[in-house]
Design brief:
heterodimer, A: 512 residues, alpha+beta, MetI-like fold, five-stranded antiparallel beta sheet, 13 helices, extended, B: alpha/beta, Rossmann fold, six-stranded mixed beta sheet, 10 strands, binds adenosine-5'-diphosphate, binds magnesium ion
Chain lengths: 512, 290
């Protein structure tokens, strides 16, 4: 620009200043990196310090408990394993299939091409949709099936009607007429009328309940005597769980619930209140203020022979209890029962084969897995597409030139070559799904559950939900339990990532 | 290193061809076969064949014939449509959305431009070897077995025999017989290309298309492939694209010279190199341009 005689335009920048800015920039970068690493170390460190004491084999092998020392991750761990396995089985074929369609079967016609790129664009957009949205879709589509197939729990629909006089009537829905609702209150655990300071409707006997904090009071009651006391419930457990008779150590001091019952007897570690009432109640619809429907819960009966029977309770009467277990009715002598408690809904599926399916899906493993599948599907599709695209054109041409049909080319050339990439992407997507709490919460993952899934229709707990539940409890001992849960979750995630890296390395060795 | 050699060989051959193309051709003994060349039955008939990519015409109304069990070389400067032509013979251009063609392209009575034609069956009858060796990331055995397995089911022993035959045919058997189950990617470039030829042969084609099969290879590997092509000549109709006129002269019976999408001249290799009818041909074969 400037000739040899002309002076240079502009003012010289002092070199020391430029060097200083350079220095400051480096210092700034190092500082911010250091701070973020420090925060991470402090967070992980504090979690490890808090949780380490709780971390042992028992922690992995115990069901959750109201007692921090006994609380374990078993239900959530297995729930998560079931969820992830089911989700993987669903998401892989769908995601890879979609990727193959998009990559290998790209259409030629103008409108088909436009539709193709529209779909592709949308998959990219879907990858950014917050997971809670998928939770709501899952609730509508999978859990409820748009309400087209009836109530998710229509098998054993229970109703809780709050009457104008404050009385709550709860039981099996027998008939739903315009002018009245007939409710069978026979033998339904918690199938009681619950009232607060109200008198019971004539002819209706009071039902059962129990609480540990008020054990003294209960013990002092005489058989046949009406008891009434209040307790505070401090977290979400299924209402009827609180109603169930259960080993007393399951219950702890601060609880909620206004409970009424007739004390029957007490045995060591067990309180037995009176039996549920029998008969049907017809409630005029005009007197019903609020009605809620929910599912019958499955019960676990602890027998004196140390046997545990899991089944759907039909009736629990004075002399015996009848339950459905494995599709057969079974009657157990009342004296053989040491205690029982409810453990979740959709009881009928409890002992079916693992692939047993019923519509609508309700809050089952399958519904949760399908919802998680929605969350990870865009990521699986995109990463599979990338893996498929990375297969060199020369290999495709080679396969075609040998006379392969398109499907033979895809299945024998593209898929084997792309498989490591596909698996890596799927595993990384899965490790995202493992940490998801929001969609599962919406779909109906349980916060407190004391069994592991036995089939895809089972209720489930999941690690992030369990950790959330522990962390939000008021008792400080549970922080440690939550921290231990987090350690396990992080360990599982790191394991997944390690697997992804190993797969990639292994296959790279084979092809290069 | 070996890539550095290839251009110099090309240049050398072009220079010597420029000095005395006939001497070269005659020395390699092609002239002796020339008489029978035009008497062999026609394998591929090309009439007024034109091909486009979108609106760009890559081949302009080409007519000639490819004869059975002869080696036909397609020569011409790069971008003149040689590969395009080759890829229409086995319909590889189906993979290119914008490609279309007009005219007649007829292989043993099959209309190759018919949309309803069975391309899978066509590709069984027409094998292809690509410019860059493209072994599959599988074992040597599975590379060869890939094609046959697409079309038929075999008993193990049958497949073993087929693999051995194909590898022997491609003059590769002795080198790989002890490591059939090792990855094909461990072979050298020249071995890989012979593997690709064996893979094409294994399907049992009548026609072999080769698109500059030696351009990625060193001179020694190139000579081995040329030997191989001479051996295969008695069994297959071979159409080979080459950049290297020396090579065309050495291995082909018939040569077709393409220039900017048009066929300038086609005829017996010896005639084309010794008495070219067109000035452009003469200039090209004597290395004055291209
Ligand atoms: N897939 C394609 N799409 C568009 N144009 C192409 C395509 N392949 C080749 N061409 C064009 O067609 C012409 C002929 O190409 P090609 O047959 O590959 O030439 P050659 O093999 O003789 O070097 C070139 O101008 C090239 O740019
Ligand atoms: Mg080419």
């Amino acid at each position: 620009m400037s000739g040899p005689d002309e002076p240079l335009l502009g003012r010289e920048k002092p070199a020391w200043r430029r060097r200083l800015i350079d220095r400051l920039f480096v210092i700034g970068c190092v500082a911010s990196a250091f701070v973020s690493v420090l925060i991470l170390v402090v967070l992980l460190g504090s979690i490890v310090v808090r949780g380490w004491g709780h971390l042992d084999w028992a922690f992995l092998n115990h069901y959750p408990s109201r007692n921090a020392a006994d609380a374990g991750l078993k239900a959530a761990l297995w729930g998560t394993i079931w969820l992830c396995a089911t989700c993987m089985i669903l998401a892989l074929p769908l995601g890879v299939g979609a990727a193959i369609l998009l990559e290998e079967y790209a259409p030629k016609g103008l409108w088909a091409r436009r539709a193709h790129s529209f779909v592709e664009l949308n998959i990219r957009n879907l990858a950014g949709v917050p997971s809670i949205v998928y939770g709501i879709i899952g609730l509508t589509v999978f859990v409820r099936c748009f309400g087209l197939l009836g109530n998710p729990n229509q098998y054993d629909q229970m109703i809780r009607a709050t009457l104008a006089n404050g009385v709550v009537v709860q039981g099996m829905l027998v008939e739903d007429r315009p002018e009245s609702v007939v409710i069978d209150v026979t033998g339904v655990d918690g199938g009681a009328a619950q009232a607060e300071g109200m008198s019971w409707p004539t002819g209706v006997e009071v039902s059962l309940a129990l609480v540990q904090g008020e054990t003294e009071k209960l013990l002092s009651a005489k058989p046949g005597e009406a008891v009434s006391f209040s307790i505070r419930r401090d977290y979400n457990l299924p209402l009827d769980l609180a109603f169930a008779l259960a080993p007393a150590e399951e219950w702890e001091t601060p609880s909620v619930l206004k409970v009424d019952g007739v004390f029957r007897e007490s045995r060591p570690g067990l309180l037995v209140l009176n039996d549920p009432m029998e008969g049907r109640m017809e409630v005029p619809t005009t007197t019903v203020l609020v009605r809620e429907s929910f599912a019958v819960r499955t019960h676990e009966f602890y027998l004196r022979s140390n046997e545990v029977v899991r089944g759907d309770s039909l009736s629990i009467g004075e002399k015996s209890a009848t339950l459905v277990s494995g599709g057969r009715a079974r009657t157990i002598n009342r004296d053989d029962i040491q205690g029982y408690r409810s453990i979740g809904s959709l009881a009928i599926g409890q002992e079916e084969s693992f692939f047993y399916v019923r519509l609508p899906l309700g809050g089952s493993v399958l519904a949760g897995a399908l919802t998680l599948m929605l969350v990870i599907l865009p990521v699986v599709i995109i990463s599979s597409q990338e893996a498929i695209r990375a297969v060199p054109k020369s290999l495709r041409e080679g396969a075609f030139a040998a006379g392969a049909t398109r499907w033979q080319m895809v299945s024998r050339m593209v898929l084997p070559s792309a498989m490591p990439g596909i698996m890596t992407g799927a595993i990384l997507a899965m490790s995202r799904a493992i940490g998801e709490a929001a969609p599962l919460l919406v779909v109906g993952g349980f916060l407190f559950i004391t069994f592991t899934p036995t089939n895809v229709m089972s209720d489930f707990a999941a690690m992030p939900l369990q950790i959330y539940q522990w962390a939000s409890r008021p008792q400080p001992e549970f922080y440690g339990v939550a921290a231990a849960g987090i350690i396990v979750l992080v360990a599982v995630l790191l394991g997944f990532n390690a697997a992804a890296i190993l797969i990639r390395q292994k296959f790279q060795k084979h092809t290069r | 290193m070996r890539h550095a050699d290839a251009p110099s060989l090309l240049k050398e051959s072009r220079e010597s061809a420029a000095l005395n193309p006939l001497a070269n051709v005659a020395r390699l003994g092609v002239a002796g076969q020339a008489d029978s060349t035009t008497r062999a039955p026609v394998a591929l008939t090309v009439r007024d064949f034109s091909a486009w990519y979108g609106s760009f015409q890559a081949i302009k109304s080409v007519s000639f014939e490819v004869r059975t069990k002869r080696v036909t070389a397609l020569i011409g400067p790069s971008g003149c449509g040689k590969s395009t032509f080759l890829r229409w013979i086995n319909r590889m251009n189906d993979m290119v959305a914008s490609a279309r063609a007009e005219g007649t392209l007829n292989l043993h009575g099959i209309d190759l431009l018919d949309q309803r034609m069975d391309v899978v069956d066509l590709r069984r009858r027409v094998g292809m070897v690509f410019q860059k060796p493209n072994p599959f990331p599988k074992s040597i055995y599975d590379n060869i077995a890939f094609g046959p397995r697409l079309h038929r089911s075999f008993r193990r022993a049958e497949l073993d025999r087929l693999v051995e035959q194909s590898l022997r045919h491609a003059a590769l058997w002795e080198e790989v017989k002890d490591r059939l189950h090792d990855s094909a990617l461990g072979l050298s470039g020249g071995q890989q290309q012979r593997l690709c030829i064996a893979r094409a042969i294994a399907v049992g084609p009548e026609v072999l298309l080769m698109d500059e099969p030696c351009s990625a290879l060193d001179p020694q590997a190139t000579l081995r492939i040329e030997d191989l092509i001479r051996q295969l000549r008695s069994e297959y109709t071979i159409v080979i694209v080459t950049h290297n006129m020396q090579q065309a002269a050495r291995i082909s019976d018939v040569t077709a010279f393409f220039y900017e999408g048009a066929l300038i001249e086609a005829g017996r290799t010896i005639d084309l190199f010794t008495k070219p009818q067109k000035k452009q041909t003469e200039e090209y074969v004597t290395g004055r341009f291209g």
